[in-house]
Amino acid sequence: MLKLLLWLKYLQRRKVVLLSMAAVALSVALLTVVASLFTGFIGAYEQSAVDLIGDVLLTSRVRFSGYQQLIARLEQTGVVEAAAPTTYAPGLLRLGTGNVRAVEVWGIEPERLAKVTSLKGSLLRQKDLPEAPSFGRIDPNGGLGGFVGIGVLAEPNQATDRYDVRAVKDMIGQRVVLISGAIEGMDSNAPAERRPKRRTVDFVISDVVSTGNFVFDQQSVFLPLEGLGARLDPGSSVITVDRIQIKIRPGVDVQKAAARILAEWQTFARQTLHWDPYLVAQAQVVTARQLQARYLEEIRKQLGMLLLIFGVVDCSAVVLVFCIFYMIVRLKQKDIAILKSCGYSSGQVAWVFLGFGAVVGLAGSALGTLVGVLFTRNINAIEDWLSLRLGLKLWDSSVYLFDRIPNQVDWVSVARITVLATIAACVGALAPAVLAARTRPVEILRYE
Amino acid sequence: MYKLILASRYLVKRRITYLAMGVVALSVFVVIVVMTVLQGLVAEFKQRTRAFVGDCVVGTDSLVGFPYYEEFLKVLEQSSSVEAASPLISTYGLVADVTDKERAAGLRIIGIDPVLHGRVTRLGQALHFHRDRIENAFEPARDPNLPGCIMGVDLVLNRDEHGQYDYHFAPTGTAYEMTCFPLTAKGAPLKAGAGEVSIKRFYFSDTAHTGLPREDDGVVYLPFEQLQQLCGMAGPIPRTTAIYVKFRPGVTPEEGTHQVARSWQDFGRGCAGRPQADLLQSVSVKDWKTYRRATIGPMEKEELAMVAMFILVAVTAVFIVFVVFYMIVGHKSKDIGILKSVGASNAGIIGLFSGFAALVGCLGGGVGLLGGWLFLLKINRLEGWLFEHYDFQLWDRTLFAIGDIPNQIQTKVVVIVAVCAVGVSLLGALVPILQAARTRPIETLQVSQL
């Protein structure tokens, strides 16, 4: 009880203690924000891959037919919830006179892909419709419908980093032309007979894709798998694909599921496609997280470095606590001597100051956590404000991929930082506490 | 004189001062190291960007391009501020190794006149086999008479863990089939419906290592005229997509760009009514920094954000200096009383403690700078040792186009950091100094206080 009274009295009387609390709070807030933003970015990056690709991606070096059989086999394994076939081709998209953009063209089955990825939620027109997404029948002439990335159609406003969604929606129904290439004579054994041919695909924009992933939105065009195949390879009646995007059942380990999918693929490729082992081995089965792993590892490394740098600098908070407690101990020597003369042991005296250090650390950490959490949660509003008032646009989707700053608080890091800050405050208070414990009442309280 | 003596004495006798100095030194050390590395990276990136684009770009984002560029090149040649100008075509196409056509990749294809381009940019230094012989850049080693292509280095070679390429593995002799989609001046496919593309085979002649990841990993260079043919820009009214410009020494990019922009406006007005003149409207004139703002801007902002964070960190250093000086002034109240009683003025006391604070800042800053300099001097060796023994690299060189960690300390940074160190000390000491100046000798020297 006496300790509590003394702590309260010191807090009340020695306002300088508030400085140490502020320093601890500042350090905790800074580290909380840095850790949360980086962890949030890493999480958003990983989630973005899952949203766009699914949990697992099977890619083959060579296009293959019979993918329906493969999907049926995969769905029978019990680990796959849904799978969608896709195919990829680079191309040029002509939006209007003189307006030609380089794009990545994806042949998809929208209904299936929507079960694997977050495609439906990213379609501006169809996201709120109850039925599954489709390329629709917007074109009265019965031509192809296609989805186009929002960034292909427009540039975000430089000041706000936002797209003019209304203007983009007005482009739905517009007819555009895709120019792509296909290799003719792939069946031929003589490579010289294989020649690229230009293919033009007219289609109507039936919806606009806005995933929030800048790069993806800026270069993606989706067309019906069947329609694209027929136009790129008009001589063939068989639809071929080069990738299968897969969603794993909830609760199933994705790594184990990927191994199972690989085994199924190998069996399928050997038995159904009659591929040689070399070609079979050319296919890859990777999880969405594995695709990002190397880059994210580097981001984690940068986070570690930043936390180390700020952690080292924040050691000065320990020095501050030491200075302030040293000052208090020097000023309160008479109090200490009286406590000792009343029967307090050296350990108990030391504990008064160590405990006080812990209180300062805890209070500072709590305040710092509060500030850090509030800052992190509201970082988009703060950034918007800075952008509007000072013209300082710190976050740009073209650089950081996402249109919003990930603002999830990393509570694990917050807990670690809080514990470390409290320990640091105790370390700062340790030497003054020892000094207080060694005080000899006879020297302090003598008459002279 | 007494100020100097007392300040030195306090510094030596009051060991708590070392803590303030230590914190200032630590802060300065961290700031100088981090800012040097960060600024070095930004400066290096800017340097590489400028080496790639020259000083100014007259260009359009449309793949259709714009006409009458040859006439404008003549206008530029006559300009007193322009040293050289080079037309450039930037388009996209399919690039495939002829032995593996199915694995065609969609890449950016740039068409250049090597001699002109070498005068404007430093592409010559980015080449490996024709370094500083850019005029022969498109001559394949296999046969100089064959059409050659320069591949972005990361397209054909892998970086090792030290960020180096083994050019022994360069695909000399390899042929690539370039497939372009020729467009009319209206952006429509040329010969639409014929199912034809422009295809031509080029032979590997060199690699381009610009140090810019996007360019090294996604650009193929072809001779200007040949790409012009491939993408339908040749013909009676030839087109290009950009003109890169280099200014004469002494002309700043801003001044030069302003002049080129004026010339372009006049030129555009003069072309009004001519065929395809509407394509000139989409052309903009930008200095190199504005042209590459999308990549340079964020790096500069990150620098700014880091500075803001270090300002927050400096607050703690201010607190520490405050506490230390508060204690010293408290302990030395009698000294102050005596000084005042023998005639020292308030300004004298302020001078004494301000000098003391400045000394703390100078020494702390000096130690921090020295430590930072030594650390930066050894930083690459230290990283090498860490990589050798613990497999740790600050940046994975196989992933990032970063060479050595930048360790050239900028004089500007040193001056700013040193001034800030002294400023932080003075700011922290301000309140205790004023308190010292207000001390009344009669209160500190009365018998009861003694």
Tell me what you see in this structure.
- The complex is a heterodimer of chains A (448) and B (450).
- Chain A has helices at 2-13, 17-53, 67-76, 110-116, 150-153, 165-169, 214-219, 225-232, 254-271, 277-282, 288-313, 315-331, 333-341, 346-377, 379-390, 397-400, 411-437, 441-445; strands at 56-64, 80-96, 99-108, 144-149, 175-184, 195-209, 220-224, 241-248, 284-287.
- With 448 residues, chain A is of the alpha+beta class.
- In chain A, strands 2-3-7-4-6-5 form a six-stranded mixed β-barrel.
- Chain A is elongated.
- The two termini of chain A are 32 Å apart.
- The mean pLDDT of chain A is 86.
- Chain B folds into two domains: 2-46 and 296-444, no CATH class; 61-282, no CATH class.
- Chain B contains 15 helices and eleven strands.
- In chain B, helix 1 packs across helix 13 (346-390), helix 2 (16-53) runs antiparallel to helix 11 (293-331) and helix 2 (16-53) runs antiparallel to helix 14.
- The radius of gyration of chain B is 32 Å and the shape is elongated.
- Chain B starts with a helix and ends in a 6-residue tail after the last helix.
Q: What is the ordering of alpha helices and beta strands of chain B? A: HHEEHEEHHEHEEHEHEEHEHHHHHH
Given the structure, what is the number of helices of chain B?
A: 15
Structural class per helix/strand content of chain B?
alpha+beta
Helicity range of the residues of chain A?
40-55%
Write the SSE topology.
The complex is a heterodimer of chains A (448) and B (450).
Chain A: H1 2-13, H2 17-53, E1 56-64, H3 67-76, E2 80-96, E3 99-108, H4 110-116, E4 144-149, H5 150-153, H6 165-169, E5 175-184, E6 195-209, H7 214-219, E7 220-224, H8 225-232, E8 241-248, H9 254-271, H10 277-282, E9 284-287, H11 288-313, H12 315-331, H13 333-341, H14 346-377, H15 379-390, H16 397-400, H17 411-437, H18 441-445
Parallel strand pairs in A: 3-7, 4-6
Antiparallel strand pairs in A: 1-8, 1-9, 2-3, 2-5, 2-8, 4-7, 5-6
Chain B: H1 2-13, H2 16-53, E1 56-59, E2 66-67, H3 69-78, E3 82-97, E4 105-112, H4 114-120, H5 123-126, E5 148-152, H6 153-156, E6 175-180, E7 198-208, H7 213-216, E8 219-223, H8 224-230, E9 239-240, E10 242-247, H9 253-270, E11 284-287, H10 288-291, H11 293-331, H12 333-341, H13 346-390, H14 411-437, H15 441-444
Parallel strand pairs in B: 4-8, 5-7
Antiparallel strand pairs in B: 1-10, 1-11, 2-9, 3-4, 3-6, 3-10, 5-8, 6-7
